[in-house]
Amino acid sequence: MSQPTPGRASGRGDTAVRRRLLRLPTLCLLLLASAATGAAPPAAAASPAQPLEAQEADLRATEARIADLREALNERETDRDALYAALERSDQQIADLALAVRDLAERHAAQEALAARLNKRLVQARSDLAAAREQLRALLRGAYAMGSDDRLRLLLNQQDPARIGRQLGYLRAVGRLRTAQTAAVERLGQTLARLRQAAEREVQRLATLAAEERRAQAVLRAASEARRAVLADLEVAIAADRAAVAELDAHATALREVVAELRLRAKIAEEIAITADAFHRRRGELPWPITGARLVRAFAGRARPGDLHADGILFAAPVGSEVFPVHHGQVVYADWLRGFGLLMVVDHGDGYMTLYGHNQALLKEVGEWVDADDVLALSGRLSRTDMDDVGAEIAAGRLYFALRHNGAPVDPAPWLESQSG
To answer: Model's pTM, two decimal places?
Structure first.
């Protein structure tokens, strides 16, 4: 049953690009478990990532949304700055009005004090005028009592002419003085009355101005409070816009990374596909997965219920031999699995997968693209409980190799290159 392996091109190089994706242990467990029991497994799960076109469209929509939000944010910040400037002007006007009201209050108090002083002087002037008038009335009564012939009587009484002259001069001087005092008091009273009226009018004018200033101050305060309320709402809206922009920026950054990764992945897939045919076209042309090996167990399918290796084939080779993928694809599982040891699963597209079990070490990770020249793993050995038909060759290394199409086990032997020798 042993056959030599066909030759493989020399100079195997690691040409795959490492790409880390989420591991898919559940999918592989279902595949292996269903194959072992002979049940048809579910179809292979689709890639968790969206297609490149969808991600690019999402990125463009997100960037457009960010641009709209930034424009709205700039407009709101401009409105906020204008409101702050208007609020500053209003506060300054309120301050100016407060100073004006204070100045008017001081002027009002000064005018009221002036009016009070003028009123006091007016009262005193009226009192003086009343006294002067009383004296004048007394003089007039005396002159009337003497009659118009007082001067003649004084001359005919043969009194001292000098004395009589002095008395007459005194009477004339007193009359003129009283007349002048009366006129002065009357003028002072008229002046004081005019001044008091002017002071009262000024008091009323200042009171009116102060009331108008207070009304203007109240209007400005109301406008300032309204602006402050609008500013508070704007600050909340601006903070929300900034948070939304930051969140969308983070989302856009993540999308850019995903788009870049998908573009690179698509580029890698295109480069691999340039030199490789589809898997289903290579039946009978696939290289053996291990060099220096011989086939020690053929595909049995469902002929051996409960045998984990019946749905694949076993190769014997020295422990540590290099294990290669039989076709280009992507690693979808790379971990330890009970019954199969360190297992590697490669997805070749179109529903085809190959499994490589009982490895000593795995050299690729989930998400990596591999080609036929890439080393997947180093072969290991089976445990003693797995040596049911090759008990004498316990020390020999083993590689479990299986082929699945849409989850169903397929005999891999017809797909491999023909053996010679």
So the answer is: 0.41
